[in-house]
Amino acid sequence: MTIPLFLIPIVAALVAQGLKPVFSKAWRNDQATQLDPRPRYGGMPSAHAAFASSLSLTVAVTEGTSSAAFAIATVILILVLDDALRLRIFLGRYGLAILRLLEHTPAAGRDLPPIEWRMGHTTTEVIGGIIVGVLCTVLVIALDTGV
Predict the structure, then answer these.
(1) Is residue 120 part of a domain?
(2) Are 117 and 42 a contacting pair, CB within 8 Å?
(3) pLDDT tens digit string along 104-121?
(4) What are the backbone dihedrals phi and psi of residue 84, each rounded to the nearest 5 degrees, phi first?
(5) Residue-number span of the structural domain to which 98 is assigned
(6) C-alpha–C-alpha distance, residues 37 and 54, integer Å
(7) Residue range 73-103, pLDDT digits in tens
């Protein structure tokens, strides 16, 4: 392969991030109403899932599924998917609870940094990210190898 392998998952993540305004009305609305220009967590498709699935597939294609590198990439994939589906959902619930508590505090106690509460992904968003990751990987490898 002529393309550096580390670029393939990065391309997949960037494509997934670029597709968010197309698929997610809530993501577009958040970007339009926020003063902070940084991208928010969540949205369709999951860029983290695209990156991790692309990494795992890239290693599977180049090193084989019996390699230690593939085992490590698969563990990373599982951890990333678990984070997207479970851990960040819990963090988002805590953020929402804090926001509700702040509604009942005096204005003097509200000088806190902005609290994120939309953090996790739905199952559909994660599956969309995996599909984007796999398709980008297959496309880049096919273009690079001339298949």
Answers:
(1) yes
(2) no
(3) 776 655 666 666 666 667
(4) -65, -40
(5) 7-145
(6) 27
(7) 999 999 999 888 877 677 777 777 877 877 7
CB 46 within 8 A of CB 123: no
Amino acid (one-letter) located at 112: L
Percent of the chain with pLDDT over 70: 76
Q: Does residue 25 fall inside a structural domain?
A: yes
Nearest to 78 by CA among 52, 58, 54, 59: 52
For 9, what's the count of Cα atoms within 13 Å in the CB-facing half-sphere?
A: 20
In a domain, 2, yes or no: no
Reference 90, options 55, 120, 48; nearest CA is 120
What distance in Å separates the CA atoms of residue 24 and residue 5, rounded to the nearest whole number? 30
Confidence of residue 146 (pLDDT cuts 50, 70, 90): confident
Q: What does the alpha-carbon distance between residue 71 and residue 85 come to, in Å, rounded to a whole number?
A: 21
